[in-house]
Amino acid sequence: YDYSEHPYKKMRSGDGLPFAERPIAFPGHAFPFVWPESGAATLYFKVHSKGSVVFPLQILSSEEFGQKRQTFMLLFGLVVGMMLVTVFYNLFVFFRTKEHLFFLFSIFAASVFFLFTTQSGVGFQYFWPNSIAWNEISTLLAVALVSASHFVFSIAFLSLRGLIKRIYQACIGLCFVFIALIPFVPYGDVLLPLLGAAMLFCVLSLLVGSALWFRGYHPARIYTLAWSAFLVGIFVSAGIRFGLVPYNPLTEFSGIMGALATIVVLSSAIADLINKEKQSRIQAQQSAIVNLKKYEELYESSVEGLFETNLSGKLVNANKAFLNYLGYRDVEDLREGTNNRLSNIYLNRRDREKLFARLMTEGRVQDREALLIRKDGSRFWASISMSLQKVDARSERLIEGGLTDITERKLAEDKLKYLATHDPLTDLYNRRYFEQELTTALRESRRNHGIFSMLYMDLDQFKLVNDSCGHSAGDALLTQLSRQMEALLRGRGVIARLGGDEFGVLIPAADKEQALGLANELLDLISAYRFHFEEKTFLVGVSIGLIEVSSAMSSLDNLMNLADAACNKAKQGGRNRVYCHVSSNADIQRRRNELEMITRLNTALDESGFVMFRQRIVNVDNEDATLGFEILLRLKSERNKLLLPNQFLPTAERYDILTKIDAWVVGKTFAWLGKHPEELKKVSFISINVSGSSLSDPQLAPLFQQLFITYSIPYGKICFEFSELDAVRKMEQMLSFVSHFKPLGCLFALDDYGCGFTAYRYLKKLPLDYLKLDCEMLHDLETDDLEYSMVASINQAAASLGIKIIAENIETRSMFNTLAALGIQHFQGNIFSFPEPLPHAPDGQPLSGKRLGEI
């Protein structure tokens, strides 16, 4: 400078100007300066930056500066050139192998190249010298792209799964958030958070790689070492800015050299990883080929008929067993014989349609039975299993399946079913089937208040045939006569052999007059029948008992007894005749009363005609304190009187509505307890009776379970009572019910103990908490030594099983004292408290017409 003319001169440089306006064309910031003759000069620098900047100063001669510029460009060109070679090499390998890992890595390497080209200023100098705005954006964009592409590559290279993969994906999303902010947020406000995040990303990758390396994952070792080199270079480069590391060409290029080392190491690691995976695939393919050969051998030698078709039914393949089942020589013969539609092997096309519909809905069918047709037209039963298969997204969906011939099994099953319902001698229905039909008819009669008739027939003079000619003659007589009776009754009634020479006929929807006409036809048929055997001729007759059945009939046993009695009346009247059973006035009145009671019970369920009571259960040590109480039920009569359970429960049980009543009682009790939880706190338990009939209803346990949940009733506060007779008759059902609620904490009591024939061994089978002694058993306790000994024995047996005894219906103080002396601890009876209505009992909602599960 000529200081005589220019005492001072101002110069500007930096990324805020087009590159051509810089005083010296250099990626960094350099200024020309002529040293004054005086040997001293004062320089002033004003630095303005939108981001974080370190401004080191060096004064170089022209020769030194030129050498530095050449050295910088040489080293930079060498390093970024190697980066570009790595990028193109990986792209080339990707296009050759289609291994996506090479492509992902080339994107990462290209991003790193972009970053250092931008950061060094070379990009501004050679690629966008006049684009100032882009020079700022490019730096931010490069950092974000390097971070995002590094995470994408890492997920694939390390085969990340689960939480770590989701964290990496979140980091990728964060990178794109930064990219989206670049056009709208000032450069400096984005730069520092982005650089901080980038450093954290690098540390995260190093930690993840180290953890996987520690777990023995081989690729993680190379990955960790590569990122270590990158981090070392970055930290050395940063140390120069803070004066922690001396500045020299080596340290100046530490960042880019670390990045280059990372790229080179990872590039070689990818090739090694791909080669190992390729070797694994080759080994897997070889193993698959071996397995395929074994599968083909098994496929052909399988005794199960295996086949493969497309969705339209065209045959793709089938093994020998399949062809043998259908009687074809080979696959082509099968295609030709079925018009290449495997649906043609089904006897009934609807069977195939049902199978196909289920297959398309569920993806597979298992052991479905169907009748198939062989090539020669013969039929056989087959068990068929099929599943939908699809090799890949581009292939056609196929049906793979297998079948076995189950004809012999089906014939055996049909024979067993036939023998289970038919008499082997006459081929008529047997007694078991006949009683099932009668039970069904009785149920329908009660439901619809309809009538039907029954005949009970006993052959006359049959014993004479057996005694004269032997049992073979008797069997022949029964067989011939059965065929004639069956022919006569065809379509008008169900006939069965009940045993020996006894037959039963069920005539549905027939009154007494219609049944009597049919009975006389049978009487005439048998009377006119002549049995010839070994030149002998026999006449037989028949005594027929006729009974008209209505909804008032109590049970199957009662019906059979009445029919047998009517048949005996016919025999007593001279044989070979029909006797019609006529109900007495008492029977008619009893049935009428029962029907009225059924109506009243149904009305009570609809209109809350029941009233619930409770009776206290006390402890021997404190009669005034309530241990618990038992829920009791009363029925309102027409005159507003209360009926006791023994006046209506037998009828309810006979007509199958006892289960509804049990559900009503439990539902109302739980509803009351739900509104008055304080009542539960006063007692140890609340006892509710459940009948044996209810135990057979599969909806009972789920209903009670729902009631516990709905009203928040503690399980341990409820004790279910069963009668002794119900426990014996319904032992299996009771154990099932107990096994459902006992683990939840419910208590169980056996009521009326001693009224039946329960042995001690039943007590061992039942997980009881309480045993309630029947009042009848305690009637003569004070005067009968045997009864006293029995009660003492029961108490001792119960105590050994951990069962507590409750003596109920205690009426006298002396009985109480006697039982207390025996060690009985708990009591219930009128001397302690009479049954009382539930306080604040809810009227409730009518429950009729609802299923148990809806109550």
Written description of the protein model:
By secondary structure, the protein is an alpha/beta fold. It is 53% helix and 16% strand. The protein is built from 29 helices and 22 strands. The strands form four sheets. An eight-stranded mixed beta barrel has the order 13-14-16-17-18-19-20-21, surrounded by four helices. A five-stranded antiparallel sheet has the order 2-1-5-4-3, sandwiched between helices. The chain has a five-stranded mixed sheet with strand order 7-8-6-11-12, sandwiched between helices. Helix 2 (100-120) packs antiparallel against helix 9, helix 5 runs antiparallel to helix 6 and helix 15 runs antiparallel to helix 16 (471-489). The protein is elongated. 29% of the residues are buried.
What's the main sheet like?
8 strands, mixed, barrel
Low-confidence stretches: 843-855
Gap between N and C termini: 107 Å
Structural class: alpha/beta
Strand order of the largest sheet: 13-14-16-17-18-19-20-21
Helix content: 40-55%
Summarize model confidence as the mean pLDDT. 81
- Radius of gyration over C-alpha positions, nearest whole angstrom: 49 Å
How large a portion of the residues is in β-strands, by DSSP E?
15-25%
Structure annotation, total helices: 29
Number of strands: 22
Global outline: elongated
In short:
The chain is an alpha/beta fold and 855 residues long. The protein is 53% helix and 16% strand.
Pick out its properties.
single chain; 855 residues; alpha/beta; 29 helices; 16% strand
Describe the secondary structure blueprint for this structure.
Elements: H1 62-97, H2 100-120, H3 122-126, H4 132-157, H5 162-181, H6 187-214, H7 218-241, H8 249-252, H9 254-301, E1 305-310, E2 315-318, H10 320-326, H11 331-337, H12 349-362, E3 364-373, E4 379-389, E5 398-405, H13 407-421, H14 431-448, E6 452-460, H15 462-469, H16 471-489, E7 494-499, E8 502-507, H17 512-528, E9 530-533, E10 536-539, E11 541-549, H18 556-572, E12 578-580, H19 585-607, E13 610-619, E14 622-636, E15 642-643, H20 649-654, H21 658-675, H22 677-681, E16 685-689, H23 692-695, H24 700-710, E17 718-723, H25 724-729, H26 731-741, E18 747-753, H27 760-765, E19 770-773, H28 785-800, E20 804-807, H29 813-822, E21 826-827, E22 836-837
Parallel strand pairs: 11-12, 14-16, 16-17, 17-18, 18-19, 19-20, 20-21
Antiparallel strand pairs: 1-2, 1-5, 3-4, 4-5, 6-8, 6-11, 7-8, 9-10, 13-14, 13-21, 13-22, 14-15
Helix pairs in contact: 1-2, 1-9, 2-4, 2-9, 4-5, 4-6, 5-6, 6-7, 7-9, 15-16, 16-17, 21-24
